[in-house]
Specification:
Layout: H1 71-76, H2 80-83, H3 101-110, E1 118-119, H4 120-126, H5 132-141, E2 144-146, E3 149-150, E4 157-158, E5 164-166, E6 169-170, E7 178-183, H6 200-203, E8 213-214, E9 223-229, H7 232-239, E10 247-253, H8 259-267, E11 269-271, E12 274-276, E13 280-282, E14 290-295, H9 302-309, E15 314-322, E16 325-326, E17 335-337, H10 340-348
Parallel strand pairs: 9-15
Antiparallel strand pairs: 1-4, 2-3, 2-5, 5-6, 7-9, 7-17, 8-9, 10-14, 10-15, 11-12, 13-14, 15-16
Amino acid sequence: MYNNNFNNDGERRPRPRFHREGEAVPARPRFHRDGDRPVSYGHAERSEHPHRSFNSERPYNSEHPYSSATPASRQRSANPQSAQRRPFGAKPKRNNGLYSAHKQQVYREQHEDLTKPVRLNKYLANAGICSRREADDFIQAGVITVNGVVADSLGVKVLPTDDIRFHDQPVRRERKVYILLNKPKNTVTTTDDPQERHTVIDIVRNACQERIYPVGRLDRNTTGVLLLTNDGDLAAKLTHPKFHKKKIYAVTLDRELDEVDEAIVRAGVVLDDERIIPDALEFPKADRKHIGLEIHSGQNRVVRRIFEKVGYKVVNLDRVSFAGLTKKNVGRGKWRFLTPKEVAFLQMGSFE
């Protein structure tokens, strides 16, 4: 490889110079005014400007446009909090509690429109008295009064300021409660069981004073995610089939799923004159007995009926996800309150 640092005789070439021979080497440029060159801080006794620390009250060069002695900085320094500058690249700290989702929700509840009428059955459901369907039965039975008059019409609307009574007892609005339960086996998904079996309400009985009820149903031996609330609007939204809530199940069959039967399930199985097509079907383990099934249908016992249609029995069924809610960090038979962020997502319909 040719090396340009040596000549033909093998001698090293001299380094190129950018000035003519005989001329003095020009001095390096300096970025200071003539006659105003500062002396090194190591020789402060010969300097007109002795070494200054950053805590000094007077800056070194007060005429510099970015000096801390500018009028704007002097105005900021009047506020001791603004005088403390954050490190370079650090993000400003925000007061997360000032405009948090929980406080926004409380604000909306405290500043609701009292002049906006709502249906009576919806008002009773939001108050935690009963569901909307049960409220219609109570209205037809004539046990609901509005401002002293018996309400016998299903479409009657009321105002939040009206005097509404149920069996001569005033109806008071309750705070909204949202609880996620990891349902265990041998537990009935109902508020009351005539056979006095163990219910999901027995597990969360001491969680709150409000009357809550499960959203949807899970079989007695089906485990997994279950939502309990007294929010009638949200419950109606999550149970209505048009919203297409995504549900993921962990299924264990009595034997391995044949490839032919798998193709039938993937193509769709007809249940109650409706073709149920799974959104996803996977095998998370080495065998074909354990299946992960994603589905949107809200039919009763839909997963068990799908596999019974092709000749299989579901041994274990666990719902691991419902409307974006999972049972992560919630043990079997345990529960927790939803976070304000989760409640906001459900109310906005930001679930799959």
